[in-house]
């Protein structure tokens, strides 16, 4: 028996050591709140803008990649201004390449700059955009036309074409702008941008044929990212390509994009033929850019990687069409560029009808739990107005839903205590015959209608709920920088308090949030978690086995150290869950005549000192 206990203790200690080492070596480093992929951590490989689709029908592969020049003809910019966005459109290429999210700042610090989503390349950047090229990588959306059979490529606009502002001054809600370009051969191309109150651009491309012959061309849209974005590399978070192809969700990591198989005339690419509804783009943790053709519009979605230029891009190509002399061809599509606010992108599913757009949020494998849990949390936040109190209210709701199982569990635990004398009798009668003991105990359970596994059901149910809430707090922007009260001003980040500075009483800094060192300096919420787990254990007598007693005694405090680096919103949920569990168990077991001896269990769990006394033979 002593050998088994020694092995159990050793296995437990080694398990916790493995967890701590894993956390130290493999845990992701704290990252800034600006769009992932924006801060430059390594030299960008090349600064050549993206390649454009080549000649041929839109249903066929474009020509080989051909980068545009390092610099384009000097051109002006058209300002973008709304309550949600600020930035500009470059007349060089008519591209949206300068975009700030004015409702979100990089940090909670006063004066923190707005989050930058889109950034121009060196080819289109100018002094009007205060962008540090050593900090940001080019990331932009550009539109164009693929020349049809017999049409020279110089007769269609490309990413280097300088457009003219034909109408409008500043792009803002209700005030569209139109760019125009005349190819000098009888064809006039126009591009109209409109913007709503949030993050949706409507992009209208038209081709007016004033020539004497038919003119064939196909419009397209491209989102390009130069260089590998600086992702968080977290297995529960998807960052990279995201899209919807006729009802099928497409997700692709940047590593997978760079390793795509080469396709003739495409390079490394993946091509999807969308017959009805779809969209394609890039997602970060909180932000996204996505091309969305009008609902019902067939198009070709392409995910591509340019090896030489180190450019990741997604494309939406429309079918080739022929414009007869004296007629005009128009093609409308949408560009989403902004924050993945659940209520906003859900609204875009209704108007203009972007299919399953809300799935751009990474709900994960437990989407059937994460979605309703978030919706409930969002609803509670709308009523209460504080996300911290909403998490506490959510915990009460979830505990109410699983209460029938919890009630059965606690009743079963009470009945198990009633059976303790009979089990002791069976143990004395069977002696060392373990098989006979187990058989008679199971017969006793069956006769008394007691399920010994009932106590595990609430715990098993809590595991997917806990993971789903962790996912919700980690990936949804509604939790980003969401305050509770006092020192908890960001429920998506770990508790910033620390024992090292006596929780703010001393004028000293503390280790960075999310690091192992910060976790072991006992944030205030972590201490509250440890105490609540310890109190929950004290509702039941300590195990008689010495090894099990030691493991149970240390478990709350080990969890206290391990979970100190978790998001404070998640720790708050766990503390609330423990408190409710204590109240439920105490009440239900008391109602069935087995009131937990809380203070007696606490006293018996304390280490006792042997009082000095007379030893055998003393005094002789």
Quick structural summary:
The protein is α+β, with helices and mostly antiparallel strands. It is 32% helix and 23% strand.
Structure overview:
The chain has 620 residues and is of the alpha+beta class. The chain has 2 domains: 77-362, Beta-galactosidase, Chain A, domain 5 (Distorted Sandwich); 371-493 and 567-605, no CATH class. The chain has helices at residues 2-26, 254-258, 342-350, 367-384, 387-401, 403-418, 420-430, 434-448, 457-475, 516-519, 524-537, 546-562, 568-591, 598-605; strands at residues 77-81, 85-90, 95-105, 114-118, 139-147, 164-167, 177-182, 187-195, 200-209, 215-226, 240-245, 248-253, 262-263, 267-274, 278-283, 287-293, 299-306, 311-317, 321-323, 328-339. It has a 9-stranded antiparallel beta sheet. Strands 5, 10, 13, 14, 17, 18 and 19 form a 7-stranded antiparallel beta sheet that branches. It has a 4-stranded antiparallel beta sheet with strand order 1-2-3-4, with no helix packed on it. α6 crosses α13 and α11 (524-537) packs antiparallel against α12 (546-562). It is elongated. The relative contact order is 0.10.
């Amino acid at each position: 028996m002593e050998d088994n206990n020694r092995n159990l203790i050793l296995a437990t200690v080694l398990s916790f050591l493995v967890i701590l080492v894993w956390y130290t070596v493999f845990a992701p480093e704290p990252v800034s709140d600006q769009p992932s992929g924006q801060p430059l951590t390594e030299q960008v490989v090349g600064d050549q803008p993206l390649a454009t689709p080549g000649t041929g029908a839109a249903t066929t592969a474009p020509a080989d990649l051909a980068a545009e020049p390092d610099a384009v003809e000097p051109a002006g910019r058209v300002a973008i201004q709304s309550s949600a966005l600020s930035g500009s459109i470059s007349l060089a290429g008519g591209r949206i390449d300068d975009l700030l999210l004015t409702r979100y700042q990089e940090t909670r610090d006063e004066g923190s700059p707005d989050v930058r989503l889109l950034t121009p390349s060196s080819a289109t950047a100018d002094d009007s955009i205060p962008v540090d090229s050593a900090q940001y990588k080019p990331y932009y959306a550009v539109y164009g036309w693929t020349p049809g059979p017999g049409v020279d490529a110089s007769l269609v606009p490309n990413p280097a074409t300088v457009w003219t502002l034909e109408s409008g001054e500043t792009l803002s809600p209700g005030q569209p702008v139109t760019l125009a370009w005349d190819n000098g051969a009888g064809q006039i191309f126009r591009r109209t941008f409109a913007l709503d109150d949030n993050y949706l651009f409507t992009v209208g491309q038209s081709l007016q044929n004033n020539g004497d012959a038919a003119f064939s061309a196909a419009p397209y849209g491209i989102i390009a990212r130069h260089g590998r974005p600086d992702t968080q590399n977290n297995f529960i978070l998807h960052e990279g390509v995201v899209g919807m192809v006729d009802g099928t969700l497409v997700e692709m990591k940047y590593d997978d994009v760079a390793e795509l198989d080469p396709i003739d005339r495409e390079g490394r690419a993946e091509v999807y033929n969308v017959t009805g509804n779809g969209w394609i783009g890039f997602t970060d943790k909180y932000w996204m850019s996505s091309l969305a053709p009008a609902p019902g519009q067939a198009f070709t979605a392409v995910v591509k990687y340019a090896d030489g230029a180190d450019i990741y891009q997604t494309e939406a190509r429309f079918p080739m069409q022929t414009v007869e002399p004296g007629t005009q061809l128009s093609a409308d599509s949408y560009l989403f560029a902004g924050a993945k606010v659940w209520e906003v992108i859900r609204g875009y599913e209704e108007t203009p009808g972007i299919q399953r757009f809300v799935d751009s949020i990474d709900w994960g494998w437990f989407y059937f739990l994460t979605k309703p849990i978030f919706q409930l949390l969002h609803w509670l936040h709308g009523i209460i107005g504080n996300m911290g109190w909403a998490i506490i209210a959510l915990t009460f709701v979830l505990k109410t839903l699983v209460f029938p199982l919890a009630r059965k569990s606690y009743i079963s635990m009470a009945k198990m205590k009633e059976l303790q004398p009979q089990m002791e009798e069976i143990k004395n009668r069977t002696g060392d015959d373990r098989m006979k003991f187990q058989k008679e105990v199971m017969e006793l359970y069956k006769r008394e209608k007691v399920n010994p596994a009932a106590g595990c059901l609430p715990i098993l149910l809590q595991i997917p709920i806990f993971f789903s809430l962790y996912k919700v707090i980690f990936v949804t922007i509604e939790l980003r920088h969401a305050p509770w009260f006092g020192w908890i001003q960001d429920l998506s980040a770990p508790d910033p308090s620390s024992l090292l500075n006596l929780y703010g009483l001393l004028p000293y800094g503390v280790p960075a949030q999310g690091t192992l060192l910060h976790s072991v300096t006992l944030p205030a919420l972590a201490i509250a978690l440890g105490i609540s787990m310890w109190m929950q254990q004290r509702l039941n007598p300590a195990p008689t086995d010495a090894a099990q007693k030691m493991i149970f005694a240390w478990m709350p405090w080990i969890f206290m150290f391990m979970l100190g680096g978790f998001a404070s919103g998640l720790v708050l949920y766990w503390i609330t869950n423990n408190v409710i569990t204590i109240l439920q168990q105490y009440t239900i077991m008391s109602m069935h005549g087995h009131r937990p001896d809380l203070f007696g269990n606490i006293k018996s769990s304390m280490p006792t000192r042997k009082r000095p006394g007379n030893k055998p033979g003393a005094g002789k």
